[in-house]
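User: Fold this; tokens only.

Assistant: Input:
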Amino acid sequence: MSVPFKVWNITRQKKVFVVLNSDDQQLYVNFVLKASEKLELDGSTLVLESDGTIIDDDDVLRHLKKKH
């Protein structure tokens, strides 16, 4: 199943959607790679917009997507 995520760069000057397959075994890695490519940066960290909590694995991404 395809799941969309909205992603910003650190300065919030550029915003993009990243669409991933929720069954992907490397969801987190592919998320960072796609977001980095679309935002034209060398990113390695994802954080929640609401409070800055670091997102660091596939299970967290899947849980967050179910929640929203």
